[in-house]
Write a structure and sequence with these properties.
Structural class of chain A: alpha+beta
CATH class of chain A: Alpha Beta
CATH topology of chain A: Tetrahydropterin Synthase, Chain A
Largest sheet of chain A: 5 strands, mixed
Number of domains of chain B: 1
Helix content of chain A: 10-25%
Radius of gyration of chain B: 17 Å
Shape of chain A: elongated
CATH superfamily of chain A: 6-pyruvoyl tetrahydropterin synthase/QueD
Number of strands of chain B: 5
Number of domains of chain A: 1
Oligomer: heterodimer
Structural class of chain B: alpha+beta
Radius of gyration of chain A: 17 Å
């Protein structure tokens, strides 16, 4: 029997600081590209991460994945690193500017290792007015296009 | 082709319980959601339909009609009800149950609405259990 497939999305919140700066570029060029995001001591945001997973809906539990498994994975693999941190000091961003695009891609790498469902999308809101989505390398959205 | 989305809200009680399992197993898998007294949520439903824009009316579908269909097929059945006790698709037998998870609610609402919207095709059913948790169903596998 073919089971119905559904998508499940869960939102997580973390607060972090960052500074957009590329060492290889001159101070003037950094200022020109990144504007106030280049201010020397950094600034912060309340980030919202929306993780979308898909898979067959288990005939017994009614679930794509057990939320307690997903929440503990998110806590361990993401929130413990990102929440109340300076993103520039995290390993992935030592040599990579922590724009929200790059945060999206890094979070994709983290959640792609979640073993119980298929990762479809990572969406990150930097503020209520900015959001970024990543569907994996080279993949276009299948349902929204 | 245009996608058009209509929102509706309903407030319902539910709990997660598989009658084939022991109480301990239900507690282990479902945690506090297995509390037999139930708990509740303010659900938000988004129904997305797809269709061509009618050259005369400029509509994909008459929104008033879509609202009435959602009200009749879903909201009047689910709102201020206990899903496990009062909604047919979630009534348990002695040995099995369709657990009213967000995923299964989205599938059930898809089944209630599919084929009932004149002139448009159901594209997506999205159900928010809370602002931080939602399920999308595109009709895959039904």
């Amino acid at each position: 029997m073919r089971l119905p497939h559904a998508h499940l999305s869960r939102r997580y919140h973390f607060a972090a600081s960052h500074r957009l700066h590329v060492d290889a570029l001159s101070p003037e060029r950094n200022r020109e590209i990144f504007g106030k995001c280049n201010n020397p001591f950094g600034h912060g945001h309340n980030y919202i991460v929306e993780v979308t997973l898909s898979g067959p809906v288990d005939a017994v539990t009614g679930m794509v994945t057990n939320l307690s498994d997903l929440d503990s994975f998110a806590q361990r693999e993401m929130l413990e690193l990102f929440d109340h941190a300076n993103l520039n000091t995290l390993e992935p961003f030592l040599d990579l500017v922590p724009t929200t695009e790059n945060v999206c891609i890094e979070l994709w790498r983290i959640f792609a290792a979640y073993p119980h469902a298929n990762l479809e999308r990572i969406r990150v809101e930097e503020t209520g007015n900015n959001s970024f989505e990543y569907f994996g390398d080279g993949v276009k959205p299948t349902h929204e296009g | 082709m245009i996608l058009l989305t209509r929102k509706a809200d309903f407030s319902s009680a539910h709990f997660y319980w598989n009658p084939a399992w022991s109480g301990e197993e239900n507690q282990r898998v479902f945690g506090k959601c297995a509390n037999r007294q139930g708990h509740g949520h303010n659900y938000t439903l988004e129904v997305t339909v797809e269709g061509a824009v009618d050259p005369v009316s400029g509509f994909v579908v008459d929104l008033k009609l879509l609202k009435e269909i959602i009200e009749r097929e879903v909201v009047s059945v689910y709102d201020h009800r206990h899903l496990n006790h009062e909604v047919p698709e979630f009534l348990a037998t002695e040995t099995s149950a369709t657990i009213p998870t967000t995923e299964n609610i989205a599938i059930a609402i898809w089944r209630r609405l599919a084929g009932k919207i004149p002139g448009a095709k159901l594209h997506r059913v999205r159900v928010y259990e809370t602002p931080d948790l939602f399920a999308d169903f595109y009709g895959e596998g039904v």
